[in-house]
Write a structure and sequence with these properties.
Helix content is 10%, strand content 15%. The protein is an alpha+beta fold and 106 residues long. The strands form three sheets. A two-stranded parallel ribbon has the order 1-6. Strand 4 (56-57) and strand 5 (65-66) form a beta hairpin. The longest helix is centred in the last third of the chain and has 7 residues, at 93-99. Bound molecules: iron/sulfur cluster (2 copies).
């Protein structure tokens, strides 16, 4: 199943709880300048230096958002294709853990 980070809920998608952890800690390739989009010279990795992604907005777990989520190229990124193993809509396990919620997962 596919899902994506810092997202609105969509049918058959992993449901992001906006905890921000994957945008701080998970290795991913992201664009630098949103207006240039996906070209090799405009890419960088997040999750190596310990610094949050430059596009992460918000101040507390549960309320983070992504500043580039609405760009047309976003669906081609690893962030959009972030996955987990559940077979139907379910909350992100990392988000549940981070927020201390104990909702059963599929
Ligand atoms: S581009 Fe958006 S979803 Fe991807 S790591 Fe950065 S803030 Fe998170
Ligand atoms: S770890 Fe999960 S809940 Fe937290 S921001 Fe990433 S996708 Fe959303």
């Amino acid at each position: 199943m596919q899902g994506h980070r810092i997202c609105q809920r969509e049918k058959n998608k992993m449901m992001c709880l906006r905890c921000g952890q994957c945008c701080k800690k998970l290795l991913a390739v992201v664009v630098i300048d949103p207006d240039l989009g996906i070209v090799e010279s405009n890419l960088e990795t997040v999750g190596i230096t310990g610094e949050p992604c430059r596009h992460l907005r918000g101040n507390e777990p549960g309320d983070y958002s992504c500043a580039v989520h609405e760009y047309p190229w976003y669906k081609e990124t690893p962030c959009y294709r972030f996955t987990q193993i559940e077979k139907s809509n379910s909350y992100c396990r990392t988000g549940l853990f981070t927020l201390g919620r104990h909702v059963p997962v599929d």
